Fold this protein.
Amino acid sequence: MNKSLLRVALLSALALVAVGCQKAPESATTPAAQSAAATSPDGALMASIAALKAGDFDSLMKNSLPPAEFAKIKADWNKDQDPITDEERQKFADTIGKLTAPDAEQKIFAEIEPQLTAFDAQYQQQIPMYVAMGSGWLQGMVQQNKDMSEESKQQALAAINALGAWVTKTRFTDPAKVKQVIAIVVKAARDLNLKSLDEARALSYEQGMQKGKAAFAAFKDALNVYGFSFDQTLDSIKPEVVSNDGKTAKIKMSYTLLGTPLTGEADMVNVDGRWYGKDTIEKIKEKAAAQAGGEGAAPAVAPAAEAPATPETQG
């Protein structure tokens, strides 16, 4: 499996939908709805947000990659994997064994409870200082980013501040909440039903997507325990097509993150009549050029020369 391209596609898709479109109806995850939605830039984002909310990573991948690249991802799913070491096998077995034991919830909490108490005594009052330091570091990275517009930088800084405020006011070591999170993780481990690392590595593409859906649901449930609703953030997103010439499009989005109103932008490109994230398509082209040695390599995909007229282009 080409893990690099898969990561780029997934991350690009998540970045787009995380700041990218209004709530879509659940029916947008059906093949017919996906095909129709992908013919407009905001429609493509709407289909992706519905897939993300549902934990439907298969549909998210279909929306994010041109058909040929998506087919290659599936065909190469179990290829080019690093050999598993005995140490990795044992570590996986120990972890799964602990999480799936009949009394896992009680044992795990009993094991970490002293650490929670020690953390509260030594570090809880210093959390605001650590958050300020971390936020300052992230803000510095944003300010130094030469590829971001000034408006994008301001929105990124606002998002960092919103997350920092949430971390500062949230007591992650609260025993009752920790017990809830442990219960969520334990249930997820049991539902995944993976007995060994070899079994996990041997999952088919379809099986991997299903396991990913279960893990993602547990992740969202754990965030909810601490007052961070991932779905609520997605539901708040509203799109505005700023420009669309039929080949490229820019979408401006407004959304609410932890009570803070924010905006962001997504760049889309039209490939053979369907819309995809610009970053994903550029990475596919770079990969194709690198594989061909950079000499006379034809791009794997290219924006359609003459894309069908859209309401935006007609207006």
Remarks:
- Confidence is low (pLDDT under 50) at residues 1-29, 305-315.
